[in-house]
Every structure is written in structure tokens, then in C-alpha cells.
Amino acid sequence: MSLVRERRHQEPLTLPIPPPPHYHGIPGDPSPSSFSSSSPDSSSPVQTLNDLEKLTVLGEGSDGTVYKTRHRRTTALYALKLIRSDLSITTVEADTLKRIESSFI
Fold it and tell me: Residue 77: beta bridge partners?
């Protein structure tokens, strides 16, 4: 108990946050500023899924798959999430609620 009292009177631990590393780039890898945002934009060059070339799978989950894609004309990189169409919102919500451990649900 005395240890707890001692800790209360100590200054909080502070550590300096290092600056972000400088981006040196990797051959063939675009700079971070060239990545496109995920917000919809009317000037976006992506009009159809055929405009995108799948490069690799970034991740998979119960709801779908995320792919790293490249725009065929501009070579801009995008993340494309394909959601399984066989899942209804009700099913997903029910599965989520089953996994939540809360006395309020």
C-alpha cells in the first residue's frame, strides 16, 4: 500500500516522441504524397473495377477481402475492399452481437 502512495506523488513518466523517419523511397514505390485518399472524389480516375489491376491481397476477414490495386492508366495505388455479397446486414449484426461480452447487451 505504501508503494501506491509513493507512486501517486511521483512525476508522470515522459518520453520524447522521435520525429517520423524521412522517406527515402524504394525503387518502384511511390512517395507517400502520391497515395490517393479513400474519400470519394468526382475527379477520381477510377470509373469501373476494370480500371484497377489486383496486385496482392492485403488482408482477409469474415466480411471480405482487401486488395492492393493499381490504376492501369495512372499507376496510382489503391486499397480495394470487396465485401462478400452473401452476408446480410442482419446476419453480420447478429454475429457481432454474439461475440460481444457485455452485460448491457
Answer: 70
Cell triple for 5? 502512495
Strand partners, 52: 71
Q: What is the pLDDT of residues 46-88, one digit of tens each?
A: 888 889 999 999 998 877 899 999 999 999 999 998 887 776 6
CB 77 within 8 A of CB 30: yes
Greatest alpha-carbon span in the chain:
68
Sheet holding 77-83, edge to edge: 52-60, 64-71, 77-83
Total domain count, the chain: 1
Measured from the Cβ of residue 38, the count of other Cβ atoms closer than 10 Å reads 9
- Nearest CA to 59 among 88, 28, 82? 82
* Set of cell numbers at residue 52: 484497377
Instruction: Indicate which CATH number applies to the domain containing 102.
Output: 3.30.200.20
Calculate the dihedral angle through the C-alpha atoms of 59, 61, 64, 70, rounding to the nearest 10 degrees: -10
